[in-house]
Amino acid sequence: MIEHNIQIKNIYYMLSYAFKVLQEDGYKHLGSEEFKNTADLFAAILIQGVSVQLKRGLTKEYIEKSEELSFLRGKIDVSASLKKNSLIKKRLECIYDDYSVDTSLNQIIKSTLVLLMKSEIKTERKKNIRNLLMFLEEVSIIDLHTVNWNVKYSRNNQTYKMLIGICYFTVKGLLHSENGTDVKIMDFLDEQRMCRLYEKFILEYYRKEHPELKANSKEIDWQLDDGIDNMLPVMQSDIMLEKGTTVLIIDAKYYSHTTQVQFDKHSIHSANIYQIFTYVKNKEAELKDKNHKVSGMLLYARTDEDIQPDETYQMSGNQISVKTLDLNVPFDDIKNMLDEIVISNIAQL
Prior knowledge:
The structure is a single chain. This protein is α+β, with helices and mostly antiparallel strands. The protein folds into 3 domains: about 10-60 and about 100-190, no CATH class; about 60-100, no CATH class; about 190-345, Trna Endonuclease, Chain: A, domain 1, CATH 3.40.1350. The protein contains 10 helices and 15 strands. It has helices at about 10-20, 25-30, 40-55, 80-85, 105-115, 125-135, 160-175, 190-210, 270-285, 330-345; strands at about 60-70, 75, 90-100, 175, 185, 215, 220, 235, 240-245, 245-255, 260, 265, 295-300, 310-315, 320-325. The strands form 5 sheets. A 6-stranded mixed β-sheet has the order 6-9-10-13-15-14, with helices on both faces. A 3-stranded antiparallel β-sheet has the order 1-3-2. Strand 14 and strand 15 (about 320-325) form a beta hairpin. Helix 3 (about 40-55) runs antiparallel to helix 7, helix 5 (about 105-115) packs antiparallel against helix 6 (about 125-135) and helix 5 (about 105-115) packs across helix 7 (about 160-175). It is elongated. One of its GO terms (molecular function) is endonuclease activity. It holds the Pfam family McrBC.
């Protein structure tokens, strides 16, 4: 079975770039800790993050409640009162708004903490989670399988962004055992979610560590003769690095196989190479400046396969590279690899 081997601590570093709050002083000690698995890592982050949020105060919302009361509160639900014969009991079914901490965001956090209690994490972390749950007694536990993760953030709940992000990775990375009582976490998250984290990490790394570059995830316009773009797909780059007249477009790929195999012959994924070539040529045409030099790179996360792509091609006047990034080495080595991409592809072009 082909796998991505990733040091757990490197997942923390990747998350710390994706969620900048993890670079703050309160979280820095996590960078020197040892973790049993990714569940243990996520538990440590949530314990610290929820502790900080409790000091700030849990977010509250007005939540509509319906309750049978002996006094009037809000408005009377006449239909429900008659159905329950509330008047006979000298009570009323009332509908009212309650300013409560029992919000969807707090429910996600509490339910994720409860889920982590059943997983293979350190005993000390389970004790810390129990202590946190005491402060969340007014918050309901929900079915995490039904959560809508498309959360809209505002000034009032911006501090929840990282917490919900970690909850998302935790929930999506957990697998229930057959008896439904114990929860085990996958060694790594599924390909789709790890791919998104991988892309975000690389982009935020360049934004933070290379301020001399303009690092963005830009949409590239189709260069059309007649301007008609009906049904054409959006060309959204993962990472675009710009400096002066030099542009490097990076497509980050997190696949179970870094190459495709046909008749025992390894080759680069055809769709990937066509895609990066199309991005480069359209970006070059968009600039309409012969002094600009646009290059492209497919940057695969390294697997344990024997054959890993490491090639550079000259295609129709542009350089297209295919490289791999090893995530199973000390993080300083990962930084060196990412820095070398800048040295090789930005400075020399």
